[in-house]
Amino acid sequence: MQKPYSLQVYKFGGASVKDAAGITNVVRIVREHGAPGQVLIVVSAMGKTTNALEEIYHLAFNGQEYAPKLAPLREYHARVITELFADDSAEQQEVQAEVDQLFSQLDQQLASLRQQQLHTDHYDQYYDQTVSVGELLSTRIVARALGAHWLDCRPLLRTDHTWREGRIDWPTTEHNVREHVPALLQRGPVVTQGFLGATPNGQTTTLGREGSDYTAAIFAYCLQAQAVTIWKDVAGLLNADPKFFADTVRYPEISYQETIEMAYYGASVIHPKTIKPLALRGIPLFVKSFLNPTAEGTRIGDCRHGLLAPAFIRKDGQCLISFESKDLTFISEENLEVIFGALSQARLKINMMQNSAISFSVCTDFSPYRLEKLLDLLRSQFTIRYNANLELYNIKNYDGNSIRQLTDGRELLLEQRTRQTFQFVCRATPAPAPVA
Ligand SMILES: Nc1ncnc2c1ncn2[C@@H]1O[C@H](COP(=O)(O)OP(=O)(O)O)[C@@H](O)[C@H]1O
Ligand SMILES: N[C@@H](CC(=O)OP(=O)(O)O)C(=O)O
């Protein structure tokens, strides 16, 4: 397909903009290592800001004191601004004023939430209105440091009302992006927020934790970009998370299909929804190191390759839930329909499942609110037991050796294998050091 714009989309995550030195490095990458042509830069909240906002929001929602947690976040942003811009310069004052305004609005919102004592059904909706401020803050600072145009992505990225996991309305989003963004790009680099969208009536939504990679893919799809580069603190897409596994190997090139599966199973380096829009328009995705921007990294695209080194994917914070019929009746299609319906209503995603004659087990991400909702829906019909604080491991392209490396010494609570993937759930313990 003819690409009308020679556009690169860059995505910088929280780790790359965690402090003033990081933001200076981002500016250097865009200026010195950027490809010729236009560039759209998608930025996440600084460092662990989203986690901090989640905690602050949780306190306010539950009527608790949040101010002692909000103050350090405000100071953190102010410190970065002080270090990044010349003392008393106009740009320092302007960006500080923008950030002050966002913090004041946030404080008002939190104070009102704290008073209201809303039902937990509203938790996800107000979460989006609150936690989204992290990206508004970071992009104000990064845009100013780059001398780039700041773009509020929310009026463009239209979603439905699925709070915390807004589903993109593609035709409207594509129309909006194509109508507004090309003219801005002609004038220079544009900085916008990852992770955010908005409903038709303008309420902010978020796209799921770590969703900024997906935002980069959405813009790239709509604008038919040449490529997307996500800048990470690792050398590329590796066969395991180096924070938990020793001797990892980098994939220099890997197909969309392999990557989508790794991301789906929980390789947190790429948000799982990122790949599909890029694959649909044949846009390559580069994973590169912001610590070593000239290094090769990984190219993800429409390619063929031989057998890859086994990939080890670990997902923590898991919960194994077992349902048993109360009267020893078999787990039938009718029972499964009820269970699946309740899981969907409670917004619990199945990561692995298995059934036997009178019992059905699912492994999901642990969320106390959602689990409580599921129990409310099903406890009259089933005996339900669950274990939390578990880990789910997937070995893609496994062999006997890789299975032994990971399973030896562990008590497996659930296990399954297909031709390409070996999966198991076990209790959380320090991970062994396999690979290579
Ligand atoms: N297969 C993998 N290859 C590389 N990194 C991985 C992999 N799986 C998990 N990771 C983790 O992903 C991290 C980078 O992703 P993330 O922290 O989400 O980046 P950012 O927030 O900056 O976008 C790495 O530091 C690494 O610990
Ligand atoms: N800030 C959001 C969105 C995101 O994608 O962040 P990061 O790129 O740092 O993973 C989060 O932490 O979930």
List the defining traits of the structure above.
alpha/beta, VC0802-like, binds aspartyl phosphate, binds adenosine-5'-diphosphate, AceGlu_kinase-like_sf, amino-acid biosynthesis, eight-stranded mixed β-sheet, six-stranded antiparallel β-sheet, 2 domains, ATP-binding, kinase, Carbamate kinase, Aspartokinase, 436 residues
Stretches where pLDDT is under 50 for at least 5 consecutive residues are none
CATH class of the largest domain: Alpha Beta
Number of helices: 13
Note the run of SSEs as H and E. Answer: EHEHHHHHEHEEEHEEHHEEEHEEHEHEE
Give helix % range.
Answer: 25-40%
Return the structural class. Answer: alpha/beta
Q: In one word, what is the shape?
A: globular
Description:
The structure is a single chain. By secondary structure, this protein is α/β, with parallel strands linked by helices. Helix content is 39%, strand content 23%. The protein is built from 13 helices and 16 strands. The strands form three sheets. An eight-stranded mixed β-sheet has the order 3-4-2-1-7-9-10-8, with helices on both faces. Strands 12-13-11-14-16-15 form a six-stranded antiparallel β-sheet, with helices on one face. Helix 11 packs antiparallel against helix 12. The mean pLDDT is 94. Bound molecules: adenosine-5'-diphosphate (ADP) and aspartyl phosphate (PHD). The site of aspartyl phosphate has 12 residues, from loops. Aspartyl phosphate binds next to loops. Belongs to the aspartokinase family. Its EC number is 2.7.2.4. It comes from Hymenobacter nitidus.
